[in-house]
Specification:
alpha+beta; 5-stranded parallel β-sheet; 36 strands; elongated; disordered N terminus; oxidoreductase activity
Length: 788
């Protein structure tokens, strides 16, 4: 048991480490009467909280190189702390992309256009399988939490190493469920490696799947369509909250460049810190706000067997962060540019990731304008050295490693906390993130030293509960996914010869999902009045046993006079006396029959409704896909949404290219009495050059009419590169009787068309508009016309 903290006397307290954990403990203890000292081995405060200045001429802006973002759902204590200090936050964008083999394969998850930023991937079965597996994982990964055994409290006498239960790793789970290599290597492993700054091999071989899934669920990252929490960044850089805490802290209690070499206890039980400079000091209590392996090194020879056994389970990895502006460490295709850009190389000997590199696009994350600051990037473990002229600074950070042993050892920490006047705190005690480290510092200050917080402390470990609850929509989605997996995916893979057989067969899972619930109901819940079951008897043994009525372990009652054959083998074999006719295997009660009818009707109606919904949704869905990807000759909207809100980089005319002739065509439906014509026959533009064209529409009828226009581009291969900044399409246009209006179209041709082999030889592009009479449903809502 933990020693009860004594809050009655003023204590001399040392905090070792000034990362987010140490700063949190310091802030909480500043509100007490304890005498607090802060020791830091580096020449600055903050640890991963490291804000530097990016200067261009007379301009300067703050850039975070370690801790960058937080979200509104899983950082409750840190956000409440920032509110108390009036540290402002700004919303930011969190997107993720992957670039493999220097741009050979790239995608980003921002929208459909970025997923298929490489148009050839539209026809890639591997790409579609990855997308399907993402949807499948988001639905079925929750079973890892649902099926996990409830945590049993560990005893102080338990051995931390011998008590480690078998925890399934990410790689084992993916292999068991038959996920594709594309999903593993180009989605889940990169995302896990990026989030925990851990090598892909360790993610696959050592990282517990339960830890990953619980983190993803807590952070709402397993929601394919549902809204996710807002992501935030500190407006003036993460260093701003440290500056706010340190205001008024006595300078003679702060010791930078002061590394703690060792810790010991004196005869009175007080804690003695021995410093690298040869000095030492004595304290009533010490908070080791360091990594777990660093804490063990500080304990040194004074560590007890229990402390050594527990703390030795925690390890860290070293990562280099480089602040630079070298675009060779970004995806080649600008459409794939994301907030987090995972860069990797493939190996000829295996399909898994060999190297990991992650570039944070600070222009997106911290709203740093490219004018005047240019591209501001932070790359973790760069694949190659950025050019020296474009490199601003280098930093090294340690991140906790998560293995089944480390996760198990976290449960034992409470047995060594607050013993010998020592508290252990850090992000490594939970998931490894800023909230975990900050909350850990608050917790030890509150529980071990009596600090009072100005807000309620929230344990975010189970921010959404311990186990997710599946609703009707979840079950229906799972059923559809299994149907697609069994009847589409697996059939196509067998045809292509790329089938990867999971140890958990999808067909069996589908059957189980459809019928296990009913099958469990079918298993007779016998009562004393239940009709006995007759099954096909096994080959009778020579041993005949007459039995009296008795309750079997299965819950079945064997009536008197029945004969059991093979009872010595443990199988229950019954026959109705004096009858050569065997009864049906399952005899159901009325209640069971009703339930089966209900479930059968439920699944049947669900499939019918799903089919109807899909048929109604196919037209707008097709329209959305066409407008995003350029299918069917549909031009895409300008890339403002995909290019970080800044399309200026695209609007640079390529003067070395040939001009392309853009012609204009117009037509109206037979039922619309309008005259609709282009005001110019053609314009000639360079790729990247903006152009403005006009159409003229006249209502020749005697009534006011509302029309709506659709559009397309020919030839079709040019559609993905025809970007409209402003137009009148798919919007209701009301013209009074006899009225004439001009309708502008502001557009440009994306310079990427110069890199597309399908655009070679294309010299003329035609923009087609067709006006239809607007239609409305019975509720008065506008119905968009079908895409031509």
């Amino acid at each position: 048991m933990n020693r009860r903290a004594d809050f009655s006397t003023r204590k001399k307290v040392a905090i070792v480490g000034s990362g987010c954990t140490g700063i949190a403990a310091l802030w909480a203890l500043n509100r007490t009467y304890h005498d607090v000292y802060l020791y830091e081995a580096a020449d600055r405060l903050g640890g991963h909280t490291n804000t530097v200045q990016w200067k261009v001429g007379k301009y300067s802006t703050a850039v975070d190189t370690g801790f960058i973002v937080l979200n509104s759902a899983t950082y409750p204590n840190f956000i409440n702390f920032l509110k108390k200090l009036n540290v402002p936050l700004d919303p930011t964008e969190m997107t993720f992309g992957v670039s493999r083999d220097q741009g050979l394969f790239e995608w980003a998850g921002t929208n459909l256009g970025t997923i298929f930023c490489q148009k050839r991937n539209i026809f890639s079965l591997k790409m579609w399988r990855m997308i399907f597996d993402i949807i499948r994982f988001n639905q079925f990964a929750l079973d890892v939490i649902i099926n996990a055994e409830d945590e049993q409290p560990v005893k102080e006498t338990d051995n931390v190493l011998h008590s480690v239960g078998r925890m399934e790793t990410i790689g084992e789970y993916l292999d068991r469920e038959g996920y594709s290599d594309a999903f593993c290597n180009d989605y889940l492993i990169p995302m896990t490696a990026a989030v925990w700054s851990t090598s892909p091999d360790k993610c696959s071989l050592e990282f517990p799947i339960l830890t990953l899934v619980r983190f993803l669920w807590n952070h709402h990252l397993l929601s394919t369509l549902a809204a996710r929490p807002d992501w935030l960044t500190l407006r003036e850089g993460s260093q701003s909250y440290i500056d706010a805490v340190m205001k008024g802290f006595p300078p003679n209690h702060l010791f930078l460049n002061t590394a703690v070499r060792q810790l010991s206890n004196d005869e009175d039980g007080r804690v003695v810190l021995h410093f690298e400079n040869g000095k030492s000091d004595t304290f009533d209590h010490v908070i080791l706000a360091t990594h777990g392996d660093q804490a063990l090194a500080i304990l040194g020879p004074s560590a007890t067997d229990q402390e050594r056994a527990i703390l030795s389970c925690f390890q860290t990895s070293q990562n280099e962060a480089v602040l630079h502006s070298d675009l060779t460490l970004m995806p080649r295709n600008r459409k794939a540019w994301s907030s987090w850009n995972y860069l990797t190389l493939s190996s000829s000997s295996k399909t898994n990731v060999d190297q990991v590199s992650l570039t944070y696009n600070m222009n997106i994350l911290q709203h740093i304008p490219r004018e005047p600051f240019g591209d501001v990037l932070v790359t973790l473990n760069p694949l190659h050295r950025p050019r020296a002229a474009l490199t601003k600074a280098r930093f090294f950070y340690s991140h906790p490693l998560y293995t089944p042993t480390a996760v198990r050892a976290q449960k034992f920490l409470r047995h060594i906390q607050n013993k010998r006047g020592i508290s252990y705190a850090g992000a490594w005690t939970k998931y490894g993130f800023h909230e975990d480290g900050f909350s850990s510092g608050l917790h030890v200050a509150q529980e071990h030293l009596g600090a009072k917080l100005p807000f309620d402390f929230i344990d975010s470990t189970y921010s959404r509960g311990k186990k997710p609850k599946l609703g009707l929509a979840d079950h229906f989605a799972r059923l559809l996914i299994l149907l697609v997996q069994v009847f589409v995916v697996q059939i196509l893979e067998r045809i292509a010869g790329t089938s990867r057989r999971p140890r958990t067969a999808a067909g069996a899972k589908l059957c189980a999902y459809l019928f296990v619930t009913m099958g469990m109901l079918l298993l007779p819940k016998y009562s004393d009045s239940a009709v006995p079951i007759a099954v096909r008897p096994a080959q009778p043994s020579s041993k005949r046993i007459d039995v009296e009525p008795t309750r079997r372990s299965s819950g079945a009652t064997v009536p008197a006079g029945s004969t059991v054959y093979g009872a010595d083998s443990g199988s229950l074999q019954q026959e109705k006396p004096d009858s050569g006719v065997r009864l049906p295997i399952f005899l159901l009660s009325a209640e069971q029959s009703k339930l089966i009818v209900f479930l059968s009707s439920y699944y049947t109606i669900s499939l019918i409704l799903g089919t109807v919904a899909l048929s109604y949704g196919s037209v707008p869905l097709y329209k959305m896909i066409c407008q995003t990807t350029g299918w069917g000759g549909q031009p895409v909207r300008a890339h403002g949404g995909s290019y970080d809100g800044d399309i200026s980089n695209r609007l640079v005319p390529i003067t070395s290219a040939n001009r392309i002739k853009v012609t204009f065509n117009a037509s109206v439906s037979d039922e619309l009495p309008w005259k609709f014509v282009p005001q110019q026959r053609e314009v000639r533009v360079l790729p990247g050059e903006t152009a403005l064209a006009f159409y003229k529409a006249t209502n020749k009828g005697d009534k006011d009419i509302i029309g709506v226009a659709t559009y397309s581009v020919t030839p079709a291969q040019c559609a993905p590169y025809f970007s409209k900044i402003q137009c009148f399409c798919f919007e209701e246009q009301r013209l009074n009787a006899g009225e004439t209006v001009d309708m502008p179209v502001f557009f440009y041709l994306d310079p990427d068309l110069l890199n597309d082999l399908n655009m070679k030889g294309v010299e003329t592009v035609t923009l087609n508009y067709t006006f239809f009479k607007a239609r409305y449903d019975n509720n008065g809502r506008f119905k968009a016309p079908a895409v031509a």
